[in-house]
Amino acid sequence: MATLLHIDSSVFPTEASASRAVTEAFRKHWEEQHPQGTVVYRDLAAEPVPHITADAHLAGFVPESAHTPEQAALFAERVKLIEELEQADAILIGAPMYNYTIPSTLKAWLDNVILMGRTGGENPSAKGTPVTVVASRGGSYAPGTPREGYEYVQNYLEAVLAGGLGLDLEFIVPELTMASQNPAMADLVPLAEASRDRAFEAAATRARQLAERVAA
């Protein structure tokens, strides 16, 4: 049975979150293809994972037999997150842009699952697993726009997910999501609506393609 690891990090509920709305659509199409499959869901806003500590970090570099009780407990939590990553046939991440980058809760999850010599390094344990990131943002940071240089979501996640973990990465980018709420962006509402439509279409297409890929 296929397993999808679905992670949301928006602080807003689905009706007020572009990233959650699109990841929900992706998941719906995925489940239609894999009704008997498994979805492992983590809502990092509702149940954040702990930020990495010295004990949790150092535990990854010493034998488990040498762990202190504190290190053993924290490392067990890291291993649980790592195994969810390794056992997934596909990964779906909602990554809204907050202050030009990803939510701190998503960064905490990444810090826990990146373990050199296992998920990171020369032969990453989840290498090749397809990951779809819904990188929503209130404005536009696309190449050629005035704020292109402030884009630290796709650039960062490209380096970490593809470069560090060896995952097969694809982005879906709903942009200008604040246009309907910001009077100064009123002229951009048609572009925002078009971007949203493309995002939902891309989510449906990507979910079906990955479902077929996993089943092959």
SS-derived structural category: alpha/beta
Strands ordered across the widest β-sheet: 2-1-3-4-5
What are the low-pLDDT stretches, counting only 5+ consecutive residues below 50? none
Specify the overall morphology.
Answer: globular
Q: Give the termini separation.
A: 12 Å
User: Which radius of gyration do the C-alpha atoms yield?
Assistant: 18 Å
Total number of strands: 5
Beta strand %: 5-15%
Major sheet description: 5 strands, parallel
Number of helices: 6
Question: Which bin fits the share of residues in helices?
Answer: 40-55%
The ordered H/E elements are EHEHHEHEHEH
What is the arithmetic mean of pLDDT?
A: 95
Domain Flavodoxin-like fold: 3-161
InterPro entries: Flavodoxin_fold, Flavoprotein-like_sf, FMN-dep_NADH:Q_OxRdtase_AzoR1, NADH:quinone_OxRdtase_FMN_depd
Function: Quinone reductase that provides resistance to thiol-specific stress caused by electrophilic quinones. Also exhibits azoreductase activity. Catalyzes the reductive cleavage of the azo bond in aromatic azo compounds to the corresponding amines.
Keywords: Flavoprotein, FMN, NAD, Oxidoreductase
